Amino acid sequence: MYTASSSVSAPPRPLHRTVPAGAGPYLAPRPRPSGAALGGRHRYPAGQRAHRSVRPAGAQLKMAIASVHRICPEFNPVQVLRRSGRSVLIVGTTGRTTAVAKCLLDHSPAWVERFRHEIASYRSFVRHRPPVRAPRLIAADPENCTLVIERMPGRAAALSRHPVEAPPRADVRAALGAIARLNAWRPPAGTFDAPLDYGARIARYHELGLFTDRDRDDLQKLLHGLAHAGGRQGMGQFCHGDALLSNILLSPAGPVLVDWEHAGWYLPGYDLATLWAVLGDAPLARRQISQLAQQAGPASRDAFLVNLMIVLTREIRTYETAVQRTMKEAPPAGSVPVPSGALAPGEEQRLLLRRLHDDCAMARRAVRAAVGTR
């Protein structure tokens, strides 16, 4: 949701020299050697990324600050940390405490539901503290979708959703440690629900043409096996739901997790699958994640693969939309000079989309191998 040292809006990323990627991204089911087809892949170059940010109108910003003052009169706004067409983040002070106010600008039903879920998560943490550090709730108004929390010190583990370079091993180790502690936590029954309906999501992706008939059938077989392995409640794992490195702040006191709008019960390995999907340029980190996902046995491995297929397909859908939007908004070819060595507008998005398709093909082969071992 924010970083402590700078604006969440990341600056344009510099050019980097491409180097070959390392070994396979994740472990295949052991009983079938064919699953080891998840071998090495090509690492694609990254260029300058177009930074898009929509500044909220002055009237919108005034209304947002007014909604904050209604629930927290002592809030003194200082700076806009992040702004988009959906929400605005404002850093300020409440007495001697530095705080961050988050206000929803797009009040469509889906975003309102997600925002209220985040408020409910922070309210739950007041009575039931998670085993990881999280911002303290100061004030909230679910009706007007306004949230005020303390600003936690630290730097984001990554400034972008898909980091261009492999993060330092120490950062990945700290992030995985925090995720492992959170996943082992079991809050009281009824505190959180299950944000993701796996059967409905698989059916929807199949209707959209993102899953083939065999993909749907294979994933349903894995889900059926998981239901028999421990039941939906027995196999449930509490997850952050959006465990991106950009949502993890690193500080000397330990990692801090922010943006809890997707928190709830998932199949085991959802957070690990999210990290695996965005660490395309960190093969060693991916291998470590895969080992963690398979430590508990075949059932956990199958759950991880189901999560991985869903997460990768969601990313593909998101970036296909982004590429199409960039193509529509891009100026005619040759009308804008491109610096030497830089990529054309949208080219980095297309390269990332290509990598996601390669990753999804790897995951698909692993799913088929896992089904074959049942």
Question: Can you characterise this structure?
Answer:
α5 (about 215-235) packs across α8 (about 300-330), α6 (about 270-280) crosses α8 and α8 packs antiparallel against α9. The protein contains nine helices and ten strands. The strands form three sheets. It has a five-stranded antiparallel sheet, sandwiched between helices. A three-stranded antiparallel sheet has the order 6-8-9, covered by helices on one side. Strands 7-10 form a two-stranded antiparallel sheet. The two termini are about 40 Å apart. The protein has helices at about 60-70, 110-125, 170-185, 200-205, 215-235, 270-280, 285-295, 300-330, 345-370, and strands at about 75-85, 85-95, 95-105, 135-140, 145-150, 155, 235-240, 250, 255, 265. It has about 375 residues and is α+β, with helices and mostly antiparallel strands. It is globular.
